[in-house]
Amino acid sequence: MPIRVEAPGGISIEFPDNTDAAVVQNVMRQATGGAAPKTDQSYWAGLGRQALQGATLGFGDEILAGVKSHLRPFGNFGSYEHELARERAHNESFAREYPWRSTIAQIGGGLALAAVPGVNVATGAQRLLAGASTVGQAATRAGAVGAGYAAVGGFGAGEGGVENRLVNATAAAPLGFAAGAALGAAGRKVGQMYGAYRAAKAEAGDPGRGAMMALERSFSRDRIDPAQVRSEMLATGARAITPDQLADALQSIERGETVQAIASRLGLNARTLGEHLRRFEERTVNPLNLVDRARLTRPGGGENTGWLLRAAAATPGEARTIAAQQLTERQVGAGARLLDAVRKTLGDGDVDGRIAQAMQALRQAESKAYRAAYANEKPFNIGPILRAWDKARGGRNTDLDRTIKNVVGAFYRPSQVITPDGRMGPVALHPVNTLAEFQRIRATDLRSAMERAQAAGDKTLLRELTRFKRHLDNVVRHTNPEWARANDMFRDGQAGQRALQLGEQTALRLNARARDTLRQFDRMSEPERELFRQGLSRAIQDRILNRQQTHDIAAELRLPGARKILQRVLGADRAAQLTRAVDEETAMLATYRSLGGSQTTPLREAIDENNAAALMTEALNVLQPKQFALELMRRGAARINAARNRELMRMLTDESPANQIAMLGRMARVRGARATGGSRGLLALGRGLPALGVIGTLPHYGRP
Question: What mean pLDDT value characterizes the chain?
Fold first, then answer.
């Protein structure tokens, strides 16, 4: 069946069947001087065809031609090419005659496509837009979706082969991106504004809900995820019980339910549940509130949450009283809590008893080591050393020389000479030659002389005695290495006292000379290390008991050098336990101190509140309705703030871990709802993005 097309002037032009539609279009344009060929369609039929083009992203003419070509046996229809040429002629004729109506109809068709359930989901557009958290992301993602729809529309509106359609799609995509980006940015902004309005309305209408929203907002500004904080609090490290089950159990315990009943309801072993509850209680023993937990998330964290507490406390109302009472009462026990943490990790309250036990263990180890050295004793001769020191003193008779001669003389022992005929000969002096006797004289005569010199501040005498001792020890060490090792380890019986003193000194300079302290600690025996710990514990406890130094010692324990010492001395687990307690105490102190500082703002608020009634009355007296309305609004806002801040302060100062876990869960849900609310406007406008497919069809008509 030939293709017949009507031209202006009543001319009818026929084309062979199966003639390409693009050829027909070009011939008709040439025959009519570029004018659109007239068609016999009605106005409404033409309008419907334009709407169909928009709804099908430019494929409406192909769809109609395909349907009609399949209906040839039932009506006066031609081949696909014939019908396609007719449909395109109809579309072009209507578009040239009614350009604006044609455009509006195509946009309407695109919007109708957006209303078809599943269209956006099928293409992934909604999922892509839902992930946009900022205006920039919304613009970029909506632009990408718009570019896709416009490109599809351009491809569908193209005529001829694939190459022509790709050219149309490439030309339409940038325009679609620009339009989609504008829609995306507008949608996100509108959604944010609407969400902010709803949030403000909810915050003003329900004090509890408003307090929760304000708390979540401060966490968001501090970049703290309430769900993560909740998970860290509920971390069990076991498969036997989940975090949600533990949270349920904690809430049930708060309501008075027994562990047995909770375990039965949750399908858990009662003993396992009880053990996890006990561990949770140990981890959360300190009375932390949500402000403290926000500060503990990272160094310098929780600043906005801290300011929220301060702002609520600075506003006239019950919130100020709640904050002052709760935080002051808690801070009174700071020293006791820190003291308890030190005793649990460094040593219990009976420090003297622990020291006595460690000293006894050290003496037993010392005695055993020296007995082994005596059993394997080798000969030694200190005579040359003694004679050299005697000779060096000569005939001098100063106090220094007399003291040294007396000490040197202590290492001689008289011996009776027996003649061959059995008579008693003269008495001769011989140097000591047994380890036991040598060790005894070192520990008595020589040490006493050195201690007296040190007490008198005689540095010259102390230096000479120390040099003399070193010369003697070198001789004995040469032949008796076991004695040398024992002597190095126990330091002439002074090892315990020195370890104790080093621990006490370390407590006074926790961040200084950490490397030197750790080197000395590493060389100690286990009893010495225990004495070091007890010395450190005793000195820290003494400082804590002095209330003026409680905060100072907490600050020192957080310094890098102090942390290294604690980790080496206590081991990783106990050091982490003490460090956590110190960090928590520091956070609580920061929260308490945040109530201080300048009181100008709360004073101004109190003055304004006192003056409010007088100002309103005077405004009416002098006929100033605007001023009266402003004061009325201010009082209304103050009343709403007071109610919200009361609930907010109760949340911020609540020290119950179970309640905090419940609040963190609610905050996580509020954050999710806030994010969803912010994207509602974007998703609503995003439903209209398929209409951008019309961009690909609009430039097509009239193009040669």
Answer: 76
pLDDT at residue number 31: 55
663 neighbors 218 (Cβ within 8 angstroms): no
Measure the CA–CA gap between 80 and 386, rounded to whole angstroms.
127
614-637 pLDDT, tens per residue? 544 555 555 566 665 665 566 656
- The candidate with the shortest Cα–Cα distance to 537, out of 506, 576, 516, is 506
How is 478-524 classified by DSSP, letter by letter?
Answer: HH-HHHHHHHHHHGGGTHHHHHHHHHHHHHHSTTSSHHHHHHHHHTS
Cα–Cα dist 105/145, whole Å: 22
Per residue in 437-460, pLDDT (tens digit) is: 888 888 888 889 998 999 999 999
- Amino acid letter at 341? A
220: Cα within 13 Å, side-chain hemisphere: 14
The predicted model scores a pTM of: 0.60
User: How many whole angstroms separate alpha carbon 209 and alpha carbon 666?
Assistant: 10
Whole-angstrom Cα distance, residue 50 to residue 98?
A: 11
Residue 167 structure tokens: 């050219």
SS3 378: coil
Q: What is the DSSP track for 51-102? A: HHHHHTTT-HHHHHHHHHHHTGGGSS---HHHHHHHHHHHHHHHHHHSHHHH
Q: Report residue 410 as tokens.
A: 């202590």
State how far the Cα of 370 lies from the Cα of 445, in Å rounded to an integer. 19
